[in-house]
């Protein structure tokens, strides 16, 4: 065992008598433990929220989405689709027409986002596990059916079993004719029955309905234009690789995005908040490290005689400095290990029992999600090492200034 570590360990361990320095050391350990635990828990919660956001969007959004760089829509014909199908990584291409419409049911009405999708949308199986009522279908016995969000069903009091009252979907077709007394000149209108209800998350449940592509095409008079194409990638192919191939194939006039890129601003905001939280708690750790600074400073004052004896026995200043740096490391590492154990324990307990609720209604989770990542533990450890070292340097330098003649 190296001498600096041996002596630092003796100073670190409590003896028969507990003095003020021991109490400050204990408080330093507890403070480092609390801050470390806070870092682990906070970073894990942000990881969990980011993972939750991805899972919500992955349920609703496609693996790859093609849209126009300029304009609201673009032309899609057989040649264009055949061009895309030449990529071996594409399993399903779903044509999409999406726009805001007015939905009326009996006397109630609201503006929603209507998403017209081709029949193969059901083959992507993105909504299968999210259906809470009705049957997942777009056509049956020559009739069109819509898949509506749970919030829309609640707000309009829609009955899935009603054969008399269909949904009326209205879309403005002639803005110049707004002054006209005839609604038929201003709006296009189509009727459709509600066939199923999905529940994903309030943002989607209150705003979206899915309808057959030909229904949306008739109502919006889009012809062969589409607002986007949604692509499912074949198993065994990497999404980003297929994305890059499509970008090269389509050129600069089209935007090809994976799921994260479709919501880049939100995910970036979560990462920034996580980084801000990391720096905030690290600053608290830096302030808390003053306890270590004062502890080592008092130890250096209290052990002047011991240091003088070490010098007289042949100890070098670098050895004395190492003793106090090691003492600071022992305090910090003990607190860090304790904090890591407590933090991991809290995260596991939250994963298993959901002790802290999010305080909001979602169909997927009702408690704060947590996800532990090795990179967070590494960054936490590095932060503790750096801050502890900086807090220990000044007391260590003060200790080596002890005079043998004045203290023996």
Automatic annotation (TrEMBL):
It is found in: Cell membrane. Pfam families: FtsX, MacB_PCD. Belongs to the ABC-4 integral membrane protein family. LolC/E subfamily. It is a multi-pass membrane protein. Coiled coil: none annotated. One of its GO terms (cellular component) is plasma membrane protein complex. PANTHER family: LIPOPROTEIN-RELEASING SYSTEM TRANSMEMBRANE PROTEIN LOLE. GO terms for biological process: lipoprotein localization to outer membrane. The keyword Transmembrane helix applies. This is ABC transporter permease. InterPro entries: ABC3_permease_C (IPR003838), Lipoprotein-release_system (IPR051447), MacB_PCD (IPR025857). It comes from Sporocytophaga myxococcoides. Residues 25-248 form the MacB-like periplasmic core domain. The chain crosses the membrane at residues 20-46, 275-301, 331-354, 374-393. Keywords: Cell membrane, Membrane, Transmembrane, Transmembrane helix. Residues 279-401 form the ABC3 transporter permease C-terminal domain. Its main location: membrane.
